[in-house]
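Before a computer can learn anything about folding, someone has to put a protein's shape into writing. The outcome of that step, for a single protein, is printed below:
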Amino acid sequence: MCVNYRPATPAQLHQVFNCPPVKFAWPEESFPGYSAPMIVGQEALRACFGLIPHWARDTRLSRSTYNARSETVAEKPSFRQAWRRGQFCLVPMQAFYEPNYEGGAAVRWRIERRDRAPFAVAGLWDRWLSPTREVVHSFTLLTLNADGHPLMGRFHKPGDEKRSLAVLAPAQWGAWMQAKPEEASGLLQTPDEQQYHCEAAPLPRATRARPSTAEQGTTRLLV
């Protein structure tokens, strides 16, 4: 499960993902409930990290829908309509974080490309209409089993199933967003251990007390 990641910067969205310049800001690190960019088509949209299905009464559900298991995403009530409609997006990142227990206690580790280039994770998005008629976009990150994976198998509690985000190669970005539901699962893959590496990155003290929304965050906004 991934509850924390570092989104791509505005410059990276434009230069690497060919998105038009964005007109919104987001924190340097994202947690469930925070605002972050997602890419649909060629456009980067402001969205909530944690999918809010159309039938939700409020945004609180986003705190438990930030990851979707690829094995069950088509059946789970929170995700199945978006999946069946093919609402696939890219979630652009610089790095993501997972807990490592190799020393006995959980330590946050950073996973990123060896060349530090931004990358895209497979996401599923939805649109929610608030009681005040505001349109809120949101997304979840797709995950895969990673038991035995030389990189992603190092994380989470001993004895727990190992999971990994589904990282897409650049050549797959367009195919993912245009995929039909019956094709989408075949595009999902774990990070290539030859291209990605990990290292300890304890959570900075300033970000340990996380606010309820991105706009109230203590981390610097990316603009």
About this structure: The longest helix spans residues 10-15.
